[in-house]
Automatic annotation (TrEMBL):
This is Site-specific integrase.
Length: 168
Protein backbone atom coordinates (compact mmCIF):
# COMPACT_ATOMS: atom_id res chain seq x y z
CA UNK A 1 0.00 0.00 0.00
CA UNK A 2 1.32 3.43 -0.97
CA UNK A 3 0.81 6.46 1.27
CA UNK A 4 1.07 10.03 0.04
CA UNK A 5 2.82 12.70 2.07
CA UNK A 6 1.11 16.05 2.53
CA UNK A 7 3.44 17.60 -0.07
CA UNK A 8 2.52 16.64 -3.63
CA UNK A 9 4.73 14.17 -5.50
CA UNK A 10 6.02 12.44 -2.34
CA UNK A 11 4.92 8.96 -1.38
CA UNK A 12 6.16 6.02 0.66
CA UNK A 13 5.28 2.49 1.75
CA UNK A 14 5.07 1.39 5.37
CA UNK A 15 7.95 -0.99 4.70
CA UNK A 16 10.29 1.77 3.43
CA UNK A 17 13.19 2.46 5.78
CA UNK A 18 13.18 6.14 4.79
CA UNK A 19 10.03 8.18 4.21
CA UNK A 20 10.75 11.25 2.08
CA UNK A 21 8.07 13.75 3.11
CA UNK A 22 9.13 16.73 1.03
CA UNK A 23 12.18 18.04 -0.80
CA UNK A 24 14.26 18.53 2.35
CA UNK A 25 12.71 16.39 5.08
CA UNK A 26 12.53 12.69 5.70
CA UNK A 27 11.96 10.37 8.65
CA UNK A 28 13.21 6.92 9.55
CA UNK A 29 10.25 5.36 11.37
CA UNK A 30 11.81 1.90 11.47
CA UNK A 31 14.45 3.19 13.88
CA UNK A 32 11.55 3.76 16.29
CA UNK A 33 9.77 0.52 15.41
CA UNK A 34 12.94 -1.48 16.10
CA UNK A 35 12.64 -0.35 19.74
CA UNK A 36 8.92 -1.23 20.07
CA UNK A 37 7.22 -4.46 21.05
CA UNK A 38 5.87 -6.43 18.08
CA UNK A 39 2.20 -5.67 18.79
CA UNK A 40 2.81 -1.91 18.51
CA UNK A 41 5.00 -1.77 15.40
CA UNK A 42 2.36 -1.77 12.66
CA UNK A 43 0.08 0.49 14.72
CA UNK A 44 2.80 3.12 15.04
CA UNK A 45 3.63 2.97 11.33
CA UNK A 46 -0.01 3.26 10.24
CA UNK A 47 -0.70 6.17 12.60
CA UNK A 48 2.47 7.97 11.52
CA UNK A 49 1.55 7.39 7.86
CA UNK A 50 -1.87 8.94 8.52
CA UNK A 51 -0.17 11.94 10.14
CA UNK A 52 2.31 12.25 7.25
CA UNK A 53 -0.60 12.62 4.84
CA UNK A 54 -2.28 15.31 6.96
CA UNK A 55 0.46 17.33 8.68
CA UNK A 56 3.76 19.06 7.94
CA UNK A 57 7.01 17.15 7.56
CA UNK A 58 8.49 19.06 10.52
CA UNK A 59 5.64 17.87 12.76
CA UNK A 60 6.16 14.26 11.61
CA UNK A 61 9.88 14.56 12.37
CA UNK A 62 9.05 15.89 15.84
CA UNK A 63 6.76 12.94 16.53
CA UNK A 64 9.24 10.37 15.24
CA UNK A 65 12.18 11.91 17.13
CA UNK A 66 10.24 12.07 20.39
CA UNK A 67 9.09 8.45 20.12
CA UNK A 68 12.66 7.39 19.23
CA UNK A 69 13.98 9.01 22.42
CA UNK A 70 11.07 7.75 24.51
CA UNK A 71 11.37 4.10 23.46
CA UNK A 72 15.15 4.30 23.72
CA UNK A 73 15.06 5.64 27.28
CA UNK A 74 12.69 3.05 28.73
CA UNK A 75 11.16 -0.36 28.07
CA UNK A 76 7.49 -0.10 27.19
CA UNK A 77 5.14 -3.04 26.55
CA UNK A 78 2.13 -0.84 25.89
CA UNK A 79 1.41 2.87 26.11
CA UNK A 80 -0.47 3.11 29.38
CA UNK A 81 -0.62 5.45 32.37
CA UNK A 82 2.74 4.23 33.68
CA UNK A 83 4.47 4.87 30.35
CA UNK A 84 3.01 8.39 30.18
CA UNK A 85 4.04 9.11 33.77
CA UNK A 86 7.58 7.90 33.05
CA UNK A 87 7.73 10.06 29.92
CA UNK A 88 6.57 13.10 31.89
CA UNK A 89 9.31 12.52 34.47
CA UNK A 90 11.88 11.93 31.69
CA UNK A 91 10.95 15.18 29.92
CA UNK A 92 10.95 17.24 33.10
CA UNK A 93 9.24 20.59 33.50
CA UNK A 94 11.40 22.30 30.86
CA UNK A 95 10.25 19.94 28.09
CA UNK A 96 6.84 18.97 29.46
CA UNK A 97 5.18 20.77 26.53
CA UNK A 98 6.24 17.87 24.28
CA UNK A 99 3.48 15.82 25.89
CA UNK A 100 1.07 17.75 23.64
CA UNK A 101 2.65 16.00 20.64
CA UNK A 102 2.26 12.61 22.30
CA UNK A 103 -1.28 13.38 23.42
CA UNK A 104 -2.51 14.26 19.93
CA UNK A 105 -0.71 11.33 18.32
CA UNK A 106 -1.81 8.58 20.70
CA UNK A 107 -5.36 9.95 20.80
CA UNK A 108 -5.54 9.47 17.02
CA UNK A 109 -3.82 6.07 17.38
CA UNK A 110 -6.53 4.98 19.84
CA UNK A 111 -9.36 6.41 17.68
CA UNK A 112 -8.05 4.40 14.72
CA UNK A 113 -8.47 1.29 16.92
CA UNK A 114 -4.90 0.12 16.52
CA UNK A 115 -3.44 -1.92 19.39
CA UNK A 116 -0.78 -0.51 21.69
CA UNK A 117 -2.46 2.41 23.47
CA UNK A 118 -4.53 1.90 26.61
CA UNK A 119 -7.34 4.21 27.72
CA UNK A 120 -5.42 4.78 30.97
CA UNK A 121 -2.74 6.64 28.98
CA UNK A 122 -5.28 9.14 27.69
CA UNK A 123 -6.75 9.60 31.18
CA UNK A 124 -3.25 10.20 32.57
CA UNK A 125 -2.57 12.84 29.91
CA UNK A 126 -5.78 14.62 30.95
CA UNK A 127 -4.59 14.70 34.58
CA UNK A 128 -1.08 16.00 33.87
CA UNK A 129 -0.70 19.76 33.71
CA UNK A 130 1.08 20.39 30.42
CA UNK A 131 2.94 23.68 30.44
CA UNK A 132 2.95 25.37 27.00
CA UNK A 133 6.28 25.94 25.29
CA UNK A 134 7.62 29.36 26.29
CA UNK A 135 8.37 30.60 22.80
CA UNK A 136 8.80 34.34 22.45
CA UNK A 137 9.57 34.99 26.12
CA UNK A 138 13.06 36.36 25.41
CA UNK A 139 11.59 38.77 22.88
CA UNK A 140 8.82 39.92 25.21
CA UNK A 141 11.30 40.57 28.03
CA UNK A 142 13.79 42.18 25.64
CA UNK A 143 16.41 39.81 27.01
CA UNK A 144 19.75 40.92 25.50
CA UNK A 145 21.29 37.48 25.93
CA UNK A 146 18.43 35.38 24.56
CA UNK A 147 16.48 37.88 22.48
CA UNK A 148 16.83 38.44 18.74
CA UNK A 149 18.76 41.72 19.03
CA UNK A 150 21.52 43.04 21.24
CA UNK A 151 21.04 46.47 22.77
CA UNK A 152 23.43 47.98 20.21
CA UNK A 153 21.53 46.43 17.29
CA UNK A 154 18.17 47.55 18.66
CA UNK A 155 19.44 51.13 19.17
CA UNK A 156 20.84 51.21 15.64
CA UNK A 157 17.51 50.12 14.17
CA UNK A 158 15.53 52.60 16.27
CA UNK A 159 17.90 55.46 15.33
CA UNK A 160 17.70 54.52 11.65
CA UNK A 161 13.92 54.53 11.74
CA UNK A 162 13.92 57.88 13.57
CA UNK A 163 16.27 59.39 10.95
CA UNK A 164 14.10 58.03 8.16
CA UNK A 165 10.99 59.70 9.59
CA UNK A 166 12.84 62.99 10.17
CA UNK A 167 13.87 63.07 6.49
CA UNK A 168 10.23 62.97 5.37
Amino acid sequence: QIFFAKMNRYSFKLSDKKWQLDKENCVYPHKVVDRMPTKMKLSYLKTLAYYASEYSSFYIQSINNLFYKWFGAMTIDTIDDKAIYQLNVYLGSARNYKLNIVKAFITKWKKLNYPGVEATALRMLEKIKIIPNQTGEAVKRRDPNKGPLTETELNYILNSVRKFYLQK
